[in-house]
Write a structure and sequence with these properties.
It is a single chain. It is built from 31 helices and 19 strands. By secondary structure, the chain is an alpha+beta fold. The radius of gyration is 33 Å and the shape is globular.
């Protein structure tokens, strides 16, 4: 028998459920309520109050503010039972069935999902998020749980308040936005803002309260002419005014670098029409624009092109009385339901069996989460990378761009041409060599704007460039780019291992992976994969490594003796000076560190010279390099003679500059001329056009000077190309 105080709470919860939910199973709610009361009867919250108050308030949020269904309300009542009491998930399953058990289990597991330091297995993390997708109500319970925790955050220690508030602002609020839960998102943002920036929060709160009557009077003055006209048109409507929420105002102040008193567009008026006709919204827009002068660049049509979270509305900003700017939002009642309750509203309409497009929107949310985390099994991705990718996808600002055929693609603000390429398809992204935006050739790092028409230019022989990851911002693009290079590194490392094992067998060196790992750590390689990759990339000489190990003896695989380090540079210089004319830098018996100067990018066939640096070994320059000339003028004590080997299978970077008169199809012909010449791979393309002229820079992989000269000669035969030359960095 429930105590009187609990009986009152149960009656209140049932009343809210019957008011807001389409159907209610009273017995289900009562049994869940009683189990939660019994399970938590000895527990207290940080505030000192009985713990049951928390699941009860979470259930009230679900029933009143999100209004999904009775199953979610029951799950909310039970969401902490398994985590905090002795009741196990099998007990929930026996009593309430699989559906509620899975929601409670998902909510329990997801409790610490965003604290990456507690996630040790990236694969488990991914599976956890994917399991969430099986029933979207798991996240509904978590939103309600987090909202009530934020409402009572002041009872926790200051340090914990800061951590939870930041987590809420970084993850939960944007995620609520992504699920279309506008009211939840706004309150989460304001509560997090309150704890992270208390003085700024209180300043805005005080300023709004001080001018509350003035604001209400102004809004009423603004609304009356609109109300009169809408009644004349015979429209059924609700019109209301509200100030923008605190965090939104704070962001405006920061973005515009202005104090509160200079932020004028803090008013928002919302017109909600009791009709299913979308055209009525445009009628209202016309009426508002007749009464008040609109600001054209502030008009946004989210009805024709909804946001990715399903949000639909017309937004316009007009100049109201006294020259103040007021934002007006115009939407139908159904649009308003979806704007306020997002996925919950879609769920309601789906359950109601109406509006097929709403079913598709619900599927879009599910596909969105799957797309983020349904990566290849066993992929070596750190939890930190997953968290960062996750945050990238919780964007709030979107742009709308089009393919040449007019297909719409919705991307996050600041997305680039390479993001667009991967949005179309991963194969398109992998083989991208250039892009056209509104008919003009642009670099792949060009930031796109709403309304742009984007055409991606591809080549079957093109491969991804590591630089792409630096300017791609969508999870899809970054995941594909990183996966490609990790697979490429694994493949090269396997080839490097084969080289190592073959030479070790030939030298009769017997060493297991554990012993070899100890050795490579002394050479500052993180692991064997990095070591084998360095072998395949010809960054180390296997014969020298084998000789060092055999000299040292396997029983005492070397740790560098402290006395060796002081004379390391002098020893290196002595060895470098022992190189004589005619000996390749690749064939010397000394274990020499060398690399190629980026200022001149030498390739086999170039006349080269070496310069001993203090930290990067021998730097190989072309003899004609301007930097090398200045070094020669400063003395020759660091200069060493080096030569190319007789043959090499490596690829080297070279730059080609092309200019001429632009024409349709020119870029395609140029890239074909390069890639079809001896299977040349293009690393990057940068094209600029002015009037009818173009100037392009191509970075390509070549084997030697003959290979490069062959490409240049072929490019000179392309129509409209007037100049082709090699260029340095």
């Amino acid at each position: 028998m429930l105590q009187a105080k609990y009986k009152k709470k149960l009656d209140d919860l049932l009343a809210v459920c019957h008011k807001n939910l389409r159907k209610v199973n009273d017995d289900l709610i009562i049994r869940a309520f009683e189990m939660s009361v019994e399970a938590h009867k000895h527990d207290l919250r940080s505030s000192g109050e009985p713990y049951f108050g928390h699941p009860f308030e979470v259930a009230m949020v679900v029933a009143k503010e999100i209004a999904l269904d009775d199953v979610t309300v029951a799950s909310a009542l039970l969401h902490d039972v398994v985590e905090d009491t002795e009741i196990e998930i099998d007990g929930i399953r026996r009593e309430f069935g699989d559906t509620i058990a899975e929601i409670v289990d998902g909510a329990t597991k997801i409790s610490n999902i965003f604290e990456s330091h507690e996630i040790t297995q990236a694969e488990n993390y991914r599976k956890l998020l994917l399991s969430m997708v099986n029933d979207i109500r798991v996240m509904i319970v978590k939103f309600a749980d987090r909202l009530h925790n934020m409402r009572t955050l002041e009872y926790l220690p200051a340090e914990k308040q800061q951590r939870i508030a930041k987590e809420t602002l970084d993850i939960y609020a944007p995620f609520a936005h992504r699920f279309g839960l506008a009211k939840i998102k706004w309150e989460l943002e304001d509560l997090a803002f309150k704890h992270l920036h208390r003085s700024e929060y209180e300043e805005i709160s005080h300023s709004l309260n001080a001018k509350r009557r003035e604001r209400e009077h102004y809004i009423r003055k603004f609304i009356v002419p609109i109300e009169n006209r809408l009644r004349q048109e015979g429209l059924q409507f609700t019109i209301e005014g509200r100030p923008k929420h605190f965090y939104s105002i704070y962001n405006k102040m920061m973005k515009r670098n202005k104090p509160f008193d200079e932020i004028y567009d803090m008013f928002a008026v919302r017109v909600i029409l009791d009709t299913e006709e979308n055209n009525a919204c445009f009628t209202v827009y016309g009426i508002v624009s007749e009464i008040y002068k609109p600001i054209p660049e502030r008009f946004k049509n989210y009805i024709s092109i909804p946001k990715k979270n399903g949000y639909q509305s017309l937004h316009t900003t007009v100049v109201g009385p006294e020259g103040k700017m007021v934002e007006v939002q115009i939407r139908t009642r159904q649009m308003h339901e979806i704007a306020e309750r997002g996925v919950a509203a879609h769920w309601y309409y789906k359950e109601n069996g109406s509006q097929a497009p709403l079913d598709r929107e619900l599927e879009n949310w599910i596909n969105w989460v799957r797309e983020m985390f349904d990566q290849k099994q066993g992929e070596d991705v750190s939890p930190k990378e997953l968290i960062e990718s996750f945050k990238l996808n919780l964007y709030q600002d979107e742009i709308y761009v089009f393919t040449p055929k007019g297909d719409l693609k919705i991307l996050p603000k600041n997305a680039t041409a390479i993001d667009f390429a991967f949005e179309i398809h991963s194969d398109v992204g992998f083989h991208t060599i250039g892009a056209k935006v509104n008919g003009r050739i642009v670099p792949l790092n060009t930031i796109l704007r709403s309304g742009d028409q984007v055409e991606i230019i591809t080549s079957k022989k093109q491969k991804p460039n590591r630089d792409w990851d630096k300017f791609a911002i969508t999870h899809k693009a970054k995941a594909h780019i990183r996966r490609y290079f990790k697979e490429e590194e694994r493949r090269l490392a396997e080839q490097g291992r084969e080289v190592w094992e073959k030479k070790a067998r030939k030298a009769k060196l017997h060493i297991n992976d554990d012993e070899l790992t100890k050795f490579v750590h002394t050479r500052r390689f993180d692991n064997l994969t990095a070591f084998f990759l360095a072998i395949q990339m010809e960054q180390i000489d296997v014969d020298i490594v084998i000789a060092e190990i055999m000299d040292a003896g396997k029983s005492a695989l070397p740790e560098q003796r402290p006395e060796e380090t002081g004379s390391l540079f002098n020893k290196f210089v002595d060895t470098a000076r022992s190189i004589t004319s005619g000996i390749s830098i690749f064939g010397t018996k000394g274990d020499l560190l060398y690399n190629y100067a980026k200022c001149c990018n030498p390739i086999p066939g170039d006349d080269i010279i070496g310069y001993v640096t203090t930290g990067e070994g021998i730097k190989i320059h072309r003899r004609s390099c301007r930097n090398m000339q200045s070094m020669l003028n400063n003395g020759e004590e660091r200069i060493v003679h080096v030569e190319w080997p007789d043959a090499t299978s490596s690829d080297y970077i070279a730059g080609i500059r092309i200019s001429g008169e632009d024409r349709k199809g020119l870029l395609t012909e140029v890239t074909d001329a390069i890639s079809n010449y001896d299977n040349t791979n293009i690393r990057s393309v940068n094209i600029s056009t002015k009037d009818t002229m173009f100037d392009g820079q191509f970075v390509v992989y070549v084997r030697n000077i003959e290979h490069l000269n062959g490409i240049i000669e072929r490019l000179r035969r392309v129509r409209n190309v007037s100049k082709v030359e090699r260029f340095d960095e």
